[in-house]
Amino acid sequence: MTYPFIPPAGPSAPQSVCFRSEGTLAASFEKHGSSLHTGRHANVRLSPAAAGTGVVFQRRLRSGRVVAVPARWQARVSQPLCTALQAPDGTLVRTVEHLLAALSALAIDNALVEIDAEELPIFDGSATPWCEAIRDAGRVDLDVPRTMIKVLRSVEVRDGRRSLRIEPAERLSIAAHLALAHFGEMRWEGVITPESFVRDLAPSRSFGRLKWALPAKLYTYLTRRPVLRGANLSTTAGIVGGRIIGGMRVPEEPVRHRVLDLVGDLSLAGHSILGRVTAAHTGHELNHALVAKLMRDPFAWEIVGATAA
To answer: Can you say which residues are annotated as belonging to the binding site?
Structure first.
């Protein structure tokens, strides 16, 4: 079955489709744009992939050689302010979290992502452009039952006031809070479905305080580090004092964006996860620490069919 469009949720909207089979894109599509950290232009093409492939990035180097980088937690490497994946030969693909979140939330289990640069486009700092492209392309069922990771016991990671815990549940739900100076406590809680992700999380943008932007840019140029070179008011939500320039797109936008990033980082487990996540001031490093700790504990999870979800 092909799903060309997943409608936004609302009081009269139908219940979320329950995907029993692995899925891929019904058609290929291309996206182009500048990147957040390198500031360079990138061309990306997403194509359908066979069952069992997962999400695989295929980076074309200047030499013409193509390097495959799987979207799996074992390939993740630490990079500033983003999620990055690395092939055994050192080839990087980074700032993948928004695309991975959209693919995961919209139940695209298998896809090939061809890219001619190190970093994916950032667009407006949200996941909405990816969601729109995926929804336009559509989802098609593959002739293989869908499997999921079911959490069997609680796993937790901490770093000072930052904490992240996952515990058994029948669906993926997230309860997150974040406190920023001049904003106070911000919270979001909900079940992650295609509808809730598209409506509540995808519009939220990467954010940062303007008072740190120019010093950070100067530092990265002086040290030749490709960090935040493409950050501007078109690609991020700029914070001044206790407000976001131009206003928030969704209520308490910063905490929602942290949840968006978390959905993308959790997808590196390789399957959709059934569990309840509680997050306090989380970020990429803690997200990846949780995934690694969970996956390295064979007694904390099991693989189940989607019919058991």
So the answer is: 98, 257, 261
